[in-house]
Design brief:
CATH superfamily of the largest domain: RecF/RecN/SMC, N-terminal domain
Structural class: alpha/beta
Strand content: 15-25%
Radius of gyration: 22 Å
Shape: globular
Largest sheet: 6 strands, antiparallel
Number of domains: 2
Helix content: 40-55%
CATH architecture of the largest domain: Up-down Bundle
CATH class of the largest domain: Mainly Alpha
Distance between the termini: 24 Å
Order of helices and strands: EEEHEEEEHEHHHHEHEEHHEHEEE
CATH topology of the largest domain: Glutathione S-transferase Yfyf (Class Pi), Chain A, domain 2
Number of helices: 10
Length: 360
């Protein structure tokens, strides 16, 4: 899979940027901080995710001083043919998306055709942050691997919200009369999500560990840690709900289910969140994304486009060199760097300054 060309208009600080004939292999975006390297990666990411990997709001994406919306356009070459993606981003209100000149309304309609994996400095929280960040990562892996199964995530979230509302509003003695009905729905939706998360982690963990071992010399432990337990899931779910019933009524919230899952990560057989150094945590976060990219390639039969924002900054020189060697084997990969010495050998280089891009 390869991005053939991209055009950004009034996107962040890019007034008008168009890049033609983008090559295979490593493409390095070089320039001082604040000049538009990450903005360019973000614009490319929009063509794959129809959302920013940096912010949930589209308002800051529209260039200051512009009269109209921002635009991101590009063509992705896949094994199944060319996919032209055009996104109008108004800043306020819904984006307008066309794929091959036909308007689409659901992200999954695009995500099943084109794939990418994005890494940025914010990914460090997946390793070092609280469990919610790792749950978000697992759910993102589900969306990337099986876009049509995204409904399992939203279905579970909806049941949890409604069940929590029932618990919060209950003023009587004992349990609400409808709680058993919601227990059944929670278990059904929860078991479906647990099985998807387990399958996603089983797909991405081995390649992530191999990447980490290549960089560091020792493996990355990566295991799904479900709140409910193992099979038979439905039975375990019911047992856990029964055991926590009194606590739930006191605390008026749902205490059982995949919204309390975690992803167990370990380096040198110690928990990464508590014991990993900054460099080890950074490498683990990068390798998780590379592991997901490998899982996507295995699932769809071709590698996704890789978008890596400043991936080398927290790596020592030896690991930086080894990481660059591995990335050369991955097809089209866009990398942003602020330091000229971080440019990998044999990479195509694009210089970025004040929202303008020139080929070196």
């Amino acid at each position: 899979m390869r991005l053939a060309w991209v055009e950004l208009k009034d996107f962040r600080n890019h007034r008008q940027t168009r890049l033609e004939d983008l090559p295979e292999g490593l493409v390095t975006l070089v320039g001082p901080n604040g000049e538009g390297k990450t903005n360019l990666l973000e614009g490319i990411a929009f063509l794959f995710f129809l959302a920013s990997p940096r912010t949930s709001s589209t308002e800051p994406i529209v260039r200051r001083g512009s009269d109209g919306p921002a635009y991101a356009r590009g063509e992705v070459l896949t094994g199944a043919g060319k996919v032209l993606v055009e996104v109008e981003i108004p800043g306020q209100g819904a984006n307008v998306v066309q794929v091959n000149r036909t308007r689409v309304r659901r992200k999954r309609d695009l995500r099943r055709q084109v794939r990418a994996a994005f890494f940025g400095p914010d990914d460090l929280v997946v390793v070092m942050g609280d469990p919610s960040k790792r749950r978000d990562f697992m759910d993102e892996a589900i969306r990337s691997l099986w876009p049509l199964k995204e409904s399992a995530i939203t279905a579970y979230d909806r049941v949890v919200r409604q069940r929590n509302r029932l618990l919060k509003e209950w003023e009587g003695r004992g349990a609400p009369k409808d709680l058993e009905t919601w227990d059944a729905q929670l278990a059904d939706a929860g078991c479906a999500l647990i099985r998807l998360r387990r399958k996603a982690v089983e797909a991405l963990a081995p390649p992530a560990s191999r990447e980490y071992e290549y960089l560091a010399g020792y493996a990355l432990g990566c295991e799904y840690a479900p709140n409910v337990g193992d099979e038979p899931l439905e039975e375990r779910f019911s047992e856990r709900l029964a055991a926590r019933r009194t606590d739930e009524l006191v605390r008026r919230t749902t205490l059982v289910g995949p919204h309390r899952d975690d992803l167990s990560l370990a380096v040198r057989e110690l928990g990464a969140r508590s014991f990993a150094s900054h460099g080890e945590g950074w490498a683990a976060a990068l390798c998780l994304r590379l592991g997901l990219a490998s899982a996507i390639a295995e699932e769809v039969g071709e590698g996704p486009v890789l978008l890596l924002d400043d991936p080398f900054s927290a790596l020592d020189p030896a690991r930086r060199a080894r990481s660059a060697d591995r990335l050369r084997e991955r097809g089209q990969t866009f990398i942003s760097v602020a330091d000229q010495t971080h440019i990998p050998d044999s990479a195509s280089v694009l210089d970025v300054a004040a929202g303008s891009v020139t080929e070196r």
